[in-house]
Amino acid sequence: MTAQLIDGNALSRQLRADVTARVTALKARGITPGLAVILVGENAASQVYVRNKVKACEDTGMHSVLERWPATMTEAELLARVDALNADASIHGILVQLPLPAHIDAQKVIEAISPAKDVDGFHIASAGALMTGMPGFWPCTPYGCMKMLESIGYELKGKHAVVIGRSNIVGKPMALMLLQQNATVTICHSGTKDLKAMTLQADVIVAAVGKRNVLTADMVKPGAVVLDVGMNRNDEGKLCGDVDFEGVKEVAGYVTPVPGGVGPMTITMLMVNTLESAERLVA
Ligand code: GUN
Predict the structure, then answer these.
(1) Active site residues
(2) CATH code for residues 140-263
């Protein structure tokens, strides 16, 4: 193996220790940061994710509320819950776990969240703030990727970053964050004609498609930094990313593992956003 691992668990531990210290300081001033998580339905993966989010709140000393509702919940009922949490002074962050049941318009629900409590960074006000370089909440997964690059002291200015995937949650905000750090950014997607020709030019590659083996060793320039956002299962049922880790680790300069890479960083940045939402009250 030639690549160095960027260990998301180790970096998360460091960042969460800082969050815990800042939570303690804020509590001394009479404010306990609070996160509300709403889960609608029984999606198995979502249940694991929300449990981990609530546990991260407990570990860092934050207040958390987990609301579980049946899949039969109506859109109007969910909007009413969001309204109530918008008005609840003990709650500084609201997260509605996606996906929602098909009869609920997810974008409408996201837009109902107060931008001041939009710790997922999915509201159009948050997206607009990111695009224009104004203060606002950054989506947790690409934010975590930026922290991973920062942790290795990576200078993005003048580098070519290739983002594979164009979702509103990862690909698009990722590209904007890299651009803000003066990288030259290419976004690739299912309509890209020659993905390999693009990735072979990249100094940094972020794979965020949700499909195994999107990036293989022959597609990576020696020494490139590879961040794997994917969360898939292989034929044996084992967790794996979008990157062929075994091959790519022989070519890349740095690579993130799955599990233990970007995944824990997503939750860590949710803690950071929730804390900072509460800190704004005393700033
Ligand atoms: N579903 C999968 N990832 C996420 C996330 O980061 N936030 C929310 N709200 N739902 C998700």
Answers:
(1) 53, 97, 120
(2) 3.40.50.720
